[in-house]
Amino acid sequence: MAARNSKHSTILDKPSSTPDIEGVLLPYQRDLVRAVSQHSVTVYEKSRRIGATWGVGAQAVLTAGAKREDRGMDVLYIGYNLDMAREFVDVCAMWARSLGMAAGEIGEFLFQDQEEKGVERHIAAFRIKFASGFEILALASRPRSLRGRQGFVIIDEAAFHDDLPELLKAALALLIWGGRILVVSTHDGAENPFAELVNDVRAGRKKRYHLLRTTFDEACDQGLYHRVALKLGVPWTAAGEAEWKTEIRDFYGDSATEELDVVPRAGSGRYLPLHLIEARASRDIPVLHYTCADEFVHLPDHIRTAETLRWCEDNIRPLLDRLDPLLRSLTGMDFGRVADLSVIWPIQIMPNLMRATPFTMELRNVPFEQQREILFYLGDRLPRLSGMALDRTGNGAWLAEVTMQRYGAHRVEGIHLTEGWYRDHMPKLKAAFQDASFDIPANAQVVEDFRAIELVNGVARVMVRRNTAKGEDRDPNAGQRHGDAAIAAALVIYAASRDWGSLTNFPIPRSDIMALPDDGSILGMSPHGAVATYLG
Questions:
Q1: DSSP class per residue in 455-523
Q2: Which residues pair with 480 in a beta bridge?
Q3: Is residue 307 within 8 Å of 514, Cβ to Cβ?
Q4: Are 84 and 140 in contact (CB under 8 A)?
Q5: 343 HSE (CA, 13 A, CB side)
Q6: I need a surface site. Which of 126, 249, 444, 531 has the fewest CB within 10 A?
Q7: Quick one: how far is CA 316 from the chain centroid?
Q8: Can you tell me whether residue 10 is helix, strand or coil?
Q9: Average pLDDT, rounded, for the chain
Q10: How far apart are alpha carbons 64 and 180 in whole angstroms?
């Protein structure tokens, strides 16, 4: 690998002082610089033209300008055309002058590459040399000779490279000797390898990768237009920024969702295909239903409590007795009170890391206190309970809070179900289906709940509309559903992905549920209280 036929070079002047880089970069640019310095592989999905290259250039100069003992190394920038390489090296030259770290020259030269059959070719490239002995090398296309180099690799606009998987494979070899990788791009379709890489990181398949995301609106909120106005020499005004944002969106038109909002196009439709859902369905997993009549909420506290405890003892206790006491248990819960179900989904982590579902519970029209009693009954008895992820959206916040107070913040997390949460964590649910590491009940209503997950603007979530469960005439527990079981499953898969810390032995607190009276005086309350059923 040789450099030859130098076309031109320019000596970089050093400034008299070094500026504060933290004060120059916008917040999302600072986040990127920090992420790259702290993680071996960083993936950054971004809006177009928000100054990401400017921030990356700063990190490139800091890396190449540092001494070896300060983690300095060569920087290898790979764009998909010559203009990108030229633009990047110009940005780096600006930073080198500002930071006073360049000691050599900036030059354009021909990079000698060797193809598979030994045929040599020469690729236009740019280079800045530093007094540290390292350099920034900006290439116009992907050379196979990347495998023979070492350093910090920047793959810019990764979605537009001809063979991103092979390029990543070559770059990953550099990690062995302490290299780093940044993969940064706007999107180019939901089926693009870059979009698939992002989804793999979100799904937890790329556990060592760090993911960042910045939309156009987020960049504006963090000061992008202030910098634009400064560069244009016009004063910043709120009206001016609003007009500028409108013009930018009008310019992109139908492409704005992908180009500015960081949503890959063609991202609509069913999230989980039926064949995949049914492949994970097991007839050995029971679904427990607890449905309360409207009059049940008006009964005295001790009767509602005793009736609920009776149902727990009759239905939950036998299933808990089957569980392996040595395995870790986790729970997810989607909360509902009137229109929607509450679904409680426990799992155990098997020795082969299978997330096994022993049973699920569906609570319809159950008063708040009785939902608490059922959840506490389960939590007090699950073997080695290590984590609970509970829906705290709306009225669920109360139950999430009292559960956290009972079991501790180190084991209970309340989740506000936002679009951002769905974006980050629904891929973990899909990965569990694809990897066959999760099973669900073979139940028609449960299957329909999973089919209710749709891709909307590239984000998998349950739609607002409610569906009437199939078989309503035959099943007294059926009614309107809102993908409740799927949300509970997503929560428990999220719980399984969290590091809840080590488990310690501690006394189990006494249950708040009062014991059944010995005289059986409440046995006649079922017609006015709860309708308890068990579906295998």
A1: EETTEEEE-SS-EEPTTTTT-TT--EE-SHHHHHHHHHHHHHHS--------PPPPPSSPPPPTT-TTG
A2: 468
A3: no
A4: yes
A5: 25
A6: 444
A7: 33
A8: strand
A9: 84
A10: 12
Q: What SS3 state is found at 73?
A: coil
CA dist list (Å): 499 to 243, 331, 496, 503: 45, 14, 8, 11
* Three-state SS at 283: coil
**What's the pLDDT tens digit per position in 458-501?**
888 886 555 554 444 344 455 678 899 999 999 999 999 988 86
Burial of 325 (0-12, 13-18, 19+ CB in 10 A): exposed
Residues 73 and 65: their CA atoms lie apart, in Å, by 8
CA dihedral 250, 254, 256, 262 (to 10 degrees): 170
According to DSSP, the β-strands at 440-441 and 281-282 are parallel
Give the HSE-up count for residue 463: Cα atoms under 13 Å, Cβ half-sphere.
Answer: 15
pTM, two decimals, is 0.70
Helix (H) or strand (E) segment spanning residue 453:
strand 453-456
Whether 155 contacts 84, CB under 8 Å: no
Q: How far apart are CA 250 and CA 236, in angstroms?
A: 21
Distance CA 131, CA 530 (A): 79
Rounded-to-integer distance, Cα 329 and Cα 327, Å: 6
Give the DSSP H/E element, type plus range, for residue 103.
strand 102-114
Question: Which tokens belong to 74?
Answer: 């060569």
CA distance 88 to 468: 56
| Residue whose token pair is 């986790």 | 330
The DSSP bridge pattern shows strands 360-364 and 342-349 to be: antiparallel
3-state secondary structure 188-213: CCCCCHHHHHHHHHHHCCCCCEEEEE
Beta bridge partners of residue 406, listed in sequence order: none
- Is 56 in a helix, a strand, or coil? helix
User: Residue 190 in contact with residue 264, Cβ under 8 Å?
Assistant: yes
Closest CA to 286 of 91, 464, 534, 18: 534
Mean pLDDT confidence for 439-456: 92
Distance CA 241, CA 247 (A): 10
Q: How many CA atoms are closer than 13 Å to the CA of 76, on its beta-carbon side?
A: 23
State how far the alpha carbon of 334 is from the alpha carbons of 131, 399, 483, in Å.
Answer: 59, 11, 10
Q: What does the angle CA 492 – CA 498 – CA 501 come to, to the nearest 5 degrees?
A: 120
pLDDT per residue as tens digits for the range 216-242: 999 999 999 999 999 899 999 999 999
Amino acid at 173: A
CA-based nearest residue to 388, from 458, 488, 506, 517: 488
Phi-psi region of 138 (alpha: psi -120 to 50; beta: other; left: phi over 0): beta
In tens, the pLDDT along 399-420 reads 999 999 999 999 999 999 999 9
Q: Which amino acid is at 144?
A: R
Q: Which tokens go with 502?
A: 């080590």
For residue 75, which of 94, 61, 96, 55 has the smallest C-alpha distance? Answer: 61
End-to-end CA distance of the chain: 67
